[in-house]
Amino acid sequence: MKLIKKYLLPLFMFLIFESAAIALWITKDNIFYLFNFSYIGVSVSVGLLLIIEKKGYARRAVQLLVGIYMLIYLGLIRGENMQIEGFWYYLFTGVFEAATIHYAVAKIFGPLIFGRGWCGYACWTAMILDFLPYKVPQGPRKKLGWIRYITFALSFAFVSLLFLSQVGGIERIMFWAFIIGNIIYYAVGISMAFIFKDNRAFCKYFCPVAVFLKPMSFFSLFRVKCKKDRCVNCGKCKSVCPMDVDVTDNSRKRKNGTECILCLECVKNCPKNAL
Ligand code: SF4
Ligand code: SF4
Ligand code: SF4
Question: What is the pTM of this model?
Fold first, then answer.
């Protein structure tokens, strides 16, 4: 019984993904969905098992397993544009496939359950940014979050223009948009990391996907919470947080609460096991 309780979360996550895999396989009559969501579900569940077993590399392992799969296999080999432009594209064509399903699960409705787990454990942009040297921001947060709304609007405008101008070969354009878009994201993300001395500066200020992620993760079921009776206000948790979250405040309105990527660095570093 104790063993089941210990491994309940990985089991729960595996069942959620497996349910989605089977439901989509049957409703869409496409075995790809069974493979796709089973692979992601197994990766996430194995990552959670490694976290429970206190393996320091757990988060990075999942991030690489899922990130490489999505970037190389889905994006480059299968030619699915899984970026936000791909989401607009499939939405405009009225097709509930690839990017629309991906966004619905990982970035729109999923965050109601697992917050910004996508950003901590699966995103292929952050997978590279997390290799950079500034794992903890070296300065205070800047008031530049408005940039993400501009990039969000630009991505929408780009796909709208493609449809309005009725250009041919739009599928091919979306494939190249995925490649060029990723090159731009990596170039901007790496530059921002060095300019602001903060690996996650791109996530905080530039990434258009955060426009979906932030409001939905406000209601997240899974959150890191502080046991106030144990906390000695040492400030260690805030000093190791890559996203500047005030995790000692248990309210939903905690400072930068919708930025939490569930990396658990605060939990690992709390000297009082208060998180
Ligand atoms: S904010 Fe954007 S770039 Fe950063 S991890 Fe999330 S989805 Fe990826
Ligand atoms: S690290 Fe732990 S004890 Fe220190 S302020 Fe954070 S929650 Fe409290
Ligand atoms: S360190 Fe804690 S509060 Fe900060 S992003 Fe990671 S899990 Fe969230």
Answer: 0.91
